[in-house]
């Protein structure tokens, strides 16, 4: 079976890969958007925390024999705690300064983490086996769908949807949105805003670590995995605009898909297509597709 | 914006001018004597990066625009200069001009896109665009991929002076640096620089006074990109190499670090910062990835404890002392 001169096997295969990449873009840009909303910090360490999540997963298995399913809970908790510590010791001191200092500080954290893991593990990357329960795959007739990849897509959609629900539809989320608009007023109503800020950063860090755990069996666990993805996620965030949660999710998946399709039709451009889309969006709608003009 | 060590207060102040003259004389003596004491290649590298950092600081320190993608202009110019010298066989000065022109052109396109957004978005856009250049350089046939463009000939300056002579090359690099540095200094002290600072400090107000803010920002961006290209081209001739390292995001990070250490928005700060960072790379190279960690830690320390940078702190100190003594008098 062929579509536009390309075998359906190849086409759907790349669409699947695109969806997988999109799932990671969506989860990471979601965390960035949540953190930026409340802390007004662009978290450059987001990629490093994603890498940290994958490494914690790898270390749990190889040093302690703890399997994937437990790591799915433990790694985000570990990285979340790390994030809380980071927020309490460093980020808290710079909220009053210009936004660029947040970027520079978290960039420093990212360098520190990446350098540390490079020193310890080198750059070549280490494999992480797919958990036994998810090995194998389904033959859908038009393509072969590995079980693990299906799991990643389903899980990431669930994670994104529940985060959206948490922020947009629950009482806790309404506090969060209120604090984004006017932290002083919310604090005057008796909400512990500094604690909420710490938890928000920890949540964002945990979310990126969760993406890291899911990524571990797909990509190699490597110190450079974070910096490779974070720049693309920045472009995704510029395209979607950081103002909206759903915007971050939708643009993440959509751009992953576009990247996958580019790999089929014009592979040379697949690594740059997201940046090109960003440039076009800047020309047509400078505030981003879902952004509020500010 | 509040983050810059402001020179506004110093502008009408005669003291800072004499201080600058003193610094220039000291720097001149240092530049003339240095090759007899320090490894000349190291000096040339430091000078190239100093020019790079000064060009970057023109945009950040005086325009308030944090570009996180300046490696694109530095690296692209290195490739174009290398291509001109090696494949087209142009003389070094023409090759450098070609590299600089290419970066300026790139700066026009990217700057035009990036200034559509402000603040933190501007940084993310410049970073993303620079990554696009990086991927282009990975794939393009003439860059040599992972190996880079090697054995770029230094050639004969104006067809006469042999730049393979290290001392001649050193003098040439010093000249290029001084020209670039002079342009930046002149720009900062010009009416254009004044308007740029006004836009940095309060853009809506500058606009309401009739200044076309975007035009000024774009011009500053292009100038900064072109001078970063001048530095990159010169570096390509010094090392006879243009590689992916030059266009990598880590290079963009390094130039930010140089400016931060030395002092944003100070004339001499980036020079000091560049020398420190280059020295750090040189003497700690055997430590491998520790250099990256040290750079990360330096970033954190600078942001948390030392935002004015070295030169910024010195200026603060001198100004405070002068202020104190005049109060007593």
What is this structure, in a nutshell?
Chain A: It is a multi-pass membrane protein. Chain A has helices spanning 8-39, 46-64, 68-89, 99-121, 147-169, 171-181, 183-188, 193-215, 225-240, 245-265, 273-284; strands at residues 2-3, 6-7, 137-139, 144-146.
Structural account:
The complex is a heterodimer of chains A (294) and B (329). With 294 residues, chain A is mainly α. In chain A, 71% of the residues lie in helices and 3% in strands. Chain A has helices at 8-39, 46-64, 68-89, 99-121, 147-169, 171-181, 183-188, 193-215, 225-240, 245-265, 273-284, and strands at residues 2-3, 6-7, 137-139, 144-146. The radius of gyration of chain A is 19 Å and the shape is globular. The model of chain A has no long low-confidence stretch (mean pLDDT 87). By secondary structure, chain B is an all-alpha fold. Chain B has one domain: ABC transporter involved in vitamin B12 uptake, BtuC (Orthogonal Bundle), CATH 1.10.3470. Helices cover 72% and strands 1% of the residues of chain B. Chain B contains 13 helices and two strands; from the N terminus they run αααααββαααααααα. In chain B, a hairpin with a 3-residue loop joins β1 and β2.
CA(first)-CA(last) distance of chain A = 49 Å
Distance N to C terminus of chain B = 34 Å
Major beta-sheet overview of chain B: 2 strands, antiparallel
Rounded to an integer, what's the Rg of chain B over CA atoms? 20 Å
Key structural traits:
heterodimer; A: 294 residues; mainly alpha; 4 strands; B: 329 residues; ABC transporter involved in vitamin B12 uptake, BtuC; two-stranded antiparallel sheet; 13 helices; 2 strands
């Amino acid at each position: 079976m062929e579509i536009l001169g390309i075998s359906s096997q190849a086409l759907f295969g790349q669409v699947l890969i695109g969806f997988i990449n999109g799932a990671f873009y969506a989860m990471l840009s979601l965390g960035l958007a949540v953190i930026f909303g409340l802390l007004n910090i662009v978290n450059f360490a987001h990629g490093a925390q994603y890498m940290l999540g994958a490494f914690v997963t790898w270390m749990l298995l190889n040093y302690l024999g703890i399997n994937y399913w437990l790591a799915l809970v433990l790694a985000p908790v570990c990285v979340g705690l790390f994030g809380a510590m980071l927020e309490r010791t460093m980020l808290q001191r710079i909220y009053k300064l210009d936004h660029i200092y947040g970027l520079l500080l978290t960039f420093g954290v990212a360098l520190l983490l990446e350098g540390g893991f490079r020193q310890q593990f080198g750059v070549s990357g280490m494999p992480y086996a797919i958990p036994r329960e998810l090995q194998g795959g389904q033959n859908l007739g038009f393509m072969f769908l590995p079980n693990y990849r299906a799991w990643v897509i389903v899980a990431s959609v669930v994670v994104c949807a529940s985060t959206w629900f948490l922020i947009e539809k629950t009482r806790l989320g309404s506090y969060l949105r209120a604090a984004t608009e006017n932290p002083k007023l919310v604090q005057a109503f008796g909400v512990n805003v500094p604690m909420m800020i710490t938890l928000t950063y920890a949540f964002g860090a945990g979310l990126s670590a969760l993406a890291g755990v899911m990524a571990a069996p797909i990509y190699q666990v490597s110190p450079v995995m974070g910096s490779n993805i974070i720049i693309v996620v920045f472009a995704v965030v510029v395209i979607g605009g950081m103002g909206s949660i759903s915007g971050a999710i939708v643009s993440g998946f959509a751009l992953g898909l576009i990247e996958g399709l580019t790999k089929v039709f014009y592979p040379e451009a697949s690594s740059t297509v997201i940046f090109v889309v960003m440039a076009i969006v800047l020309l047509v709608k400078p505030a981003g597709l879902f952004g509020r003009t500010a | 914006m509040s983050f810059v060590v402001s020179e506004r207060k110093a502008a009408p102040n005669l003291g800072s001018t004499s201080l600058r003259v003193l610094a220039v004389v000291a720097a001149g003596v240092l530049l003339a004597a240095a090759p007899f004491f320090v490894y000349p290649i190291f000096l040339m590298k430091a000078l190239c990066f100093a020019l790079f950092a000064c060009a970057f600081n023109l945009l950040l320190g005086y325009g308030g625009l944090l570009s996180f993608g300046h490696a694109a202009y530095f690296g692209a110019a290195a490739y174009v200069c290398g291509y001109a010298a090696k494949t087209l066989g142009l003389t070094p000065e023409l090759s450098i001009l070609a590299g600089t022109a290419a970066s300026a052109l790139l700066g026009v396109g990217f700057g035009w896109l990036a200034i559509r957004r402000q603040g933190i978005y501007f940084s993310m856009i410049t970073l993303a665009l620079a990554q696009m250049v990086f991927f282009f350089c990975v794939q393009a046939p003439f860059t040599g991929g992972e190996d880079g463009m090697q054995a770029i000939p230094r050639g004969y300056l104006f067809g006469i002076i042999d730049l393979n002579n290290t001392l001649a090359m050193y003098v040439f690099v010093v000249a290029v640096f001084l020209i670039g540095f002079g342009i930046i200094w002149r720009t900062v002290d010009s009416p254009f620089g004044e308007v740029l600072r006004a836009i940095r400090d309060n853009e809506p107000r500058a606009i309401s006074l009739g200044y076309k803010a975007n035009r000024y920002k774009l011009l500053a961006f292009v100038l900064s990109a072109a001078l970063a290209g001048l530095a990159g081209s010169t570096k390509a001739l010094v090392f006879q190499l243009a590689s992916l390292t030059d266009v990598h995001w880590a290079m963009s990070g390094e130039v930010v670090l140089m400016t931060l250490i030395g002092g944003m928005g100070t004339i001499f700060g980036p020079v000091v910062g560049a020398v420190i960072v280059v020295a750090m790379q040189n003497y700690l190279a055997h430590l491998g990835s520790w250099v990256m960690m040290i750079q990360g830690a330096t970033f954190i320390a600078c942001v948390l404890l030392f935002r004015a940078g070295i030169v910024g702190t010195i200026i603060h100190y001198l100004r405070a002392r002068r202020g104190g003594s005049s109060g007593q008098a």
